[in-house]
Amino acid sequence: PGSGARGMTKPPDQPRDQPSIPASRRRVLVLHSNPPVPCLYTFELGLRQLGHDVVTVGPESDFLAPEAWRGLDDGRTFLPAASDEHIEDIFARIGRRPDWVFYLRPHEAFLPRGLSTCPVPTVAWLEDEFKYADAYHHVAYYFDLIGTSYDEIRELFVDRGYDNWVCFNYFTASWLRPEHDVEFDGRPIDVSFVGHSSPLTTRLRCLELEQLSRLAAEGIRVEIREGPFLRDMMRIYEQSKIVFQHSGQGPPNLTYRVGEAMAAGAMVLAKRPNRVGGLERPLVEGEHIVYYDEFPQAAELIRHYLADTHARLGIAEAGNRYVREESPWRSQVRSFLERHVYTIGDDFRERRAERLRRFGVDARKERLDRAWFFGVCNGQMNQVRAEAEQIEGWREDAQARSLRAVAGSPEYSADIAFVMEREPACLLAYSNHAISLYQIRQRVGARHAAEALQDAIDRFVAAGPSDIPAAAVEGLLSLSDLRIRADISAAYVGLAGPARTARLRVVLLAQLYRCLGILLFEAGEWSHAHDRLSKAVEIVPDDGYTYAYLARAANEMGASEAAIRHFQRGIALEPHFGEAFCELSDLLLQSGRHAEAIDLLEQARLSYTYADASRMGVLVGLGAAHARVGESQKARDVLTQARAELDSGLIEMGSWKIQRVDGAIQPDQIARTRQAIQTLLERVTE
User: Fold this and answer.
1) CB–CB of 184/268 below 8 Å?
2) What's the distance, CA 82 to chain centroid?
3) β-pairing verdict for 657-659 and 650-652
4) d(Cα 60, Cα 34) in Å, to the nearest integer?
5) C-alpha–C-alpha distance, residues 165 and 128, integer Å
6) Of 216, 241, 475, 622, which sits 20 to 30 A from 354 (CA to CA)?
7) For the segment 86-136, what is each residue's pLDDT rounded down to a tens digit?
């Protein structure tokens, strides 16, 4: 850093020293997408800049617009490939056999065939997240080396018998740099977060982002953005005093956003990780980064470091120095290569063959594994069917036919009937069939779906918790929603053997109870619905969406206080739950608890920033609540805001706007809401 008033930094020049690349590791085939996944691009770009001969082959991606990458791809050589192209065909297309293969899992469906017999070493970076742990159990043994930033993931697989995982923590290896010299002082944004914030797949993160957004009520400028990438993301970080970081789901860990925010000169405030292993150099708490344990502590730390500018800037400068000078990204890539890739022994093929034998991999299992991977990680059901139909004798193979049915088989009825007849103990087949009918209940009839759900429940209950084989509950699921994915992943992360099988059984049973409860609620059978939903939350007690249906059923039964408690529980469990906020506030108002309703909706106004009908419900409900207690000016202000958002399709967030997408509010809803706002404004004026 410069001297004086918290100066500026410039990036260092080229790496201080080039690695000594073994001749047997110089030519690399990178299997990745175009454009690449930004964080994994660290490895690909590092290989080129460190002197490797690199060719990239993979799928074309629409995850990021090519324009976002303009000027950042550094002369990349890329050839497109089919999702299941054979590795030997790829070698032929690039005109040579590489010295090794580096698979960087893209967002798109892509897994070449022939990895089990690949004649050169294969290295993979699958993903530093837990959400696809089940699928990774079924592809990990095909690679000679797999890297992860998390010790928990490495230990998870080592404990399950895998000998090919290493921990190498590259979360500070940000290749992306600000466009201009870093100015540490004079930043307008107090605290920011940029990243994925889906309430279903990053629930734990979003619960804290909700609380973070509410700090705006104290005058703290908070920006929570989903969508900005690359330079746009760095521009936000360059304007931020503090960058908030949370890993999203699973055990708390640091993410790649840490290195990017440090490179931009922000102080990073992160959820305390379970541990930080595999780093090239230690990251020191209080010197390079600040940790918190629970969100109330995070809020206090935000207030403290906004007030103590000197301390905040000292940590920001130290973090910036860490990623630029003490542990720069290219030196981290070099360290990974020298520690792990260059040291792969000449016996890699023998080790791979032994590993595949240990896990019972043959031609059939390889197809089943690939189907699982494509279905879970990418939702590519066409590829799932293709893999199932390539199994020799698949028409007489119950597992292949079951996969084909889940993947939307054109002969679904014949496939599922065959599976149920051939494997009557396969609980997963009955669960998938029942959930499939539930999803199309308007077509097949609610009664037919309810019968299938009850039949599946009866079979699960009769099977008991300990006397079923793993194959009865493991496989590709017909999910009614993504909420259950976290529970499936947690079973694979934390459990093994009979304990995992038992947990998968009850998680699937909970989903069946939940779906049957919703179906019964829709049919007006409140008491029966309440019974099934209660059984679901006994098994999976952190499913807020089920609590919301419990609340609705209780309210229909006249138990309004129980309904309020259930809604409160649902809101505490699920982030960005707009309809639950609206329904709960309505119940509170009906119960005369006006102050509670107003406080609830004020929180929702700050934290629910989806430009949809629920957002309108929050604003109109808040205006009506203020009017009910005689706060006319507050009512006019919020109703005027509601009308402006409804007419413009925009939520004004200070320095940026959130645009309403087509279909988020139906035309008839817009007309009714506009009339309701006008009526309320007239009443307030009177």
Assistant:
1) no
2) 25
3) antiparallel
4) 5
5) 13
6) 475
7) 999 999 999 999 999 999 999 999 999 999 999 999 999 998 777 888 899
